[in-house]
Amino acid sequence: xxxxxxxxxxTRRGYTYSYYLSKSAEESxxxxxxxxxxxxxxxxxxxxxxxxxNKGYNIIAPDLLGYGKTxxxxxxxEYQLVDIAEDVIDILNNxxxxxxxxxxxxxxxxLSSRIVNxxxxxxxxxxxxxxxxxxxxxxxxYEKYMALTKGMxxxxxxxxxxxxxxxxxxxxxxxxxxSFYSLLFPADPTIWKTDLGPRGKIREWVENNKQxxxxxxxxxxxxxxxxxxxxxxxxxxxxxWYAAKAGGLSNEAEARIPQERYAFSIxxxxxxxxxxxxxxxxxxxxxxxxxxxxxTIEDFNTSHWIMxxxxxxxxxxxxxxxxxxxx
Length: 327
Fold this sequence. Notes:
Layout: E1 6-10, E2 16-22, E3 31-35, H1 46-54, E4 58-62, H2 81-94, E5 100-105, H3 107-118, E6 123-129, H4 142-153, H5 159-165, H6 169-175, H7 177-184, H8 191-195, H9 201-207, H10 220-231, H11 236-246, H12 251-255, E7 268-273, H13 281-287, E8 295-300, H14 306-309, H15 311-323
Parallel strand pairs: 3-4, 3-5, 5-6, 6-7, 7-8
Antiparallel strand pairs: 1-2, 2-4
Helix pairs in contact: 1-15, 2-3, 5-11
Keywords: Hydrolase
Family: Belongs to the AB hydrolase superfamily. Epoxide hydrolase family.
GO molecular function: hydrolase activity
């Protein structure tokens, strides 16, 4: 993605956001807004940005709070999804964009969920990749959630949240960055069941500098480019997304979202990653129809990283979904 096509804006909260902008010569074409997850930047969307820009769509892809050239506040309370959703709307307002097709992955899907709840009038459609729609959780309790999800799948899913929420995790991951990458982008996705989800396992992996084979979808050059972009602002900001949620810092703000906004009729898409052993496709496919009344589901025989492993299939599926919308 061309660095010359990045812009910056300051949000009402006073934070500077960097975002990629590509405008179409076809004024009638809609805007697509891409929201990345962890540990990523807007660069993760390069394959989708190229595909849809070539088809004449307008594109916005920000580096979210804590990433890239966007502000990196150190206080975890600044990373509440409700507040970041408002930041994203400030970007749209800066570009005088009224409506978008929203596409999120991982934490970008969680953030997309809050935009659905708070700003449905700004969305023509929404797509969730790997991580499905998540309704507001005013009474979120990390320990209860750990027990609940373990009961559903038979192993702990979110032990790594506890680690990323700890004070020393960002520094330790930076010091052992290749170990970190080999666990987050592994050749064998099943190791997430044994070395990412269970409590304490990621600390053991990273702090012993353990390294395994890297997934083939990420070349050495791509890994180094990804790593450079991620480390530009350090890992404290990215880890703060976990600290805000796991620490219950978002509960009060989410309690203010009216329950009638939990369900939605906006055309929606869920891309299910069938080999994602943390963000379980089956659970998302079971829960999403309870909230999304106009839902399209597409299966991808990939790990968590759909856009890397099955970029062409993803582009085709999203293209079909988007062209099927009533413009």
